[in-house]
Amino acid sequence: MLDRTQLIDRRIERLYEILKACELCARKCRVDRNAGGKGVCRSGAQMMVSSYGAHFGEESELVGRHGSGTIFLAGCNLLCLYCQNYEISHLGTGSQMTPHALSRVILELQRAGCHNINFVTPSHFTPQIIESLRYAIEEGLSIPVIWNCGGYENVQVIRLLDGIVDIYMPDIKYGDAEPAKKYSSAPDYFERCTESVIEMYRQVGDLQIDPEGIARKGILFRHLVLPNRLAGSEKVLKFIAGISKNSYVNIMGQYRPCGKAGRYREINRRPTENELEEVMQMAHSAGLYRGFPGR
Questions:
Q1: How far apart are CA 30 and CA 41, in angstroms?
Q2: Which domains are seen in the chain, by residue range?
């Protein structure tokens, strides 16, 4: 039987093979990133990291007393035109970092007391990240690993993370094809997201929280409320409830017009209090009760 490091070594080998005709995400651009090709994510073979540190703005179950050890990857496979991290995702602001160097960052965050290692927008650098984790595990990494992604994933790649990722934190951004196409150029978003989320749930199940209130394993859903019901929230929440009514769902009300949102009148404002309350009621009606206000 393979031990964990042998398992990870085989996964790393497979992931780097995928990079040669890249299908790391649902875009499946099939460019050879090892040879300098760049797909929609605008990323080559070298991993780019924007920033890292103890982060206190995540869900309380991730932050605890000492923060979530958050690592922001530069670039993105989804590139929503209203992105609130536009400089990082669209412009790729960051610095090159080798897997060995990232492993040292991971261990530094653990030594600082962070409760987890939280990779933000990791999909397009999956091989390099898993290689980094391999080195960190050898040196004593023992806290949970979080995969904090936009939801537009390749389910085959998610299967390769089984036994490596402890907590999945996918956004489910859209329930309908038209907004997904217009604002993220991903008309098949809901189909690709839901099949990947089902696999994530198969691997880790509902979010498990220890006696100190810290998440240890499971899936934590996020859903950003867009103005004018453009996120298709009812469809999204019914889907989540269909997986498990014990699902932890963060219904996020912090949308604000960023990036290129000003070009589109219908998303050039924050959601109203009534719009937010409507989505909360949708969650309650679906039978959900964990993670959102009024739980």
A1: 12
A2: 4-285 (3.20.20.70)
Does the structure show a pLDDT above 70 at 66?
Answer: yes
Radius of gyration of the chain (CA): 18
pLDDT at 262 over 80: yes
127 residue type, one letter: P
Instruction: Give the pairing of strands 68-73 and 48-55.
Output: antiparallel
Q: Does 294 score more than 60 pLDDT?
A: no
Neighbouring C-beta atoms of residue 261, cutoff 10 Å: 23
Whole-structure pTM over 0.85, yes or no?
A: yes
* % of residues, the chain, pLDDT over 90: 93
pLDDT at 293: 67
- Print burial letters for 131-168: b (CB count within 10 Å at least 16), e (below 16): bbbbbbbeeebebbbbbbbbbbbbbebbebbeebbbbb
243 vs 207: CA distance, rounded Å: 13
| Cβ contacts of 91 within 8 Å, gap of 6 or more | none
From CA 122, how far away is CA 32, in angstroms rounded?
18
**Mean pLDDT confidence for 130-139:** 96
Report yes or no: 190 and 176 within 8 Å, Cβ to Cβ: yes
- Give pairs for 100-103: CB < 8 Å, separation 24+: 100/132, 100/135, 102/47, 102/49, 102/71, 102/128, 102/129, 102/132, 103/132, 103/133, 103/134, 103/135, 103/136, 103/139
